[in-house]
Each structure stands twice: as C-alpha cells, then as structure tokens.
Design a protein that fits this description.
Blueprint (H helix, E strand, L loop, with lengths): L7 H21 L7 H15 L7 H6 L11 H12 L1
Length: about 90
C-alpha cells in the first residue's frame, strides 16, 4: 500500500489484514480485482479530504473504506468514469 507509505518489514500483518478487508469490500461492491489498486488510490485521496490532518494508515483506510467515498457525480462524470474503467 504505497499510498500509506507503510513499512512492510514492520507492518506485514496489519497490511495483509487491511488489504484483505479492502479486497472483500471491492468484491462485494462489484469492483473488478484489476481496479482495486486504482480504487485504493482514489479513496486514499478522499481520506485526506474527509479526515484532514490525520495520518493515513492501511488499517485506517480499511476501517473507513465506506466513509471515504467520492461525492455523487453528475451523469456526465459517471459516464466518463465508466468509460475510463471499461473502455
């Protein structure tokens, strides 16, 4: 999880647990496995907007996964995002 700058040598367990949780959420929401990394980056950017000044950790991102959603898009923005994701 590069977006959190976690040190895998010291945080392997929490990293794996957070990633498993995030993958489970993505699977439940119908996000393709190939798009999980992009979704993590997107939600990490919203984490900073939602919780300004707080440190982003893998555990925090997983715990607040459904709290760091982007604002509802217009129909045009939704269509553009769909085109980016599915071509």
């Amino acid at each position: 999880m590069q977006v959190t700058r976690a040190n895998p040598d010291f945080e392997r367990g929490p990293l794996n647990k957070a990633l498993a949780s995030i993958r489970s959420c993505c699977e439940r929401d119908g996000i393709p496995a190939d798009d999980v990394a992009r979704e993590i980056e997107l939600r990490a950017s919203y984490y900073h907007e939602t919780f300004p000044g707080l440190t982003l950790t893998p555990t925090a991102l997983a715990r607040h996964w459904y709290r760091v959603l982007p604002q509802a898009d217009s129909a045009e923005a939704s269509l553009e995002r769909w085109k980016e994701r599915y071509g």
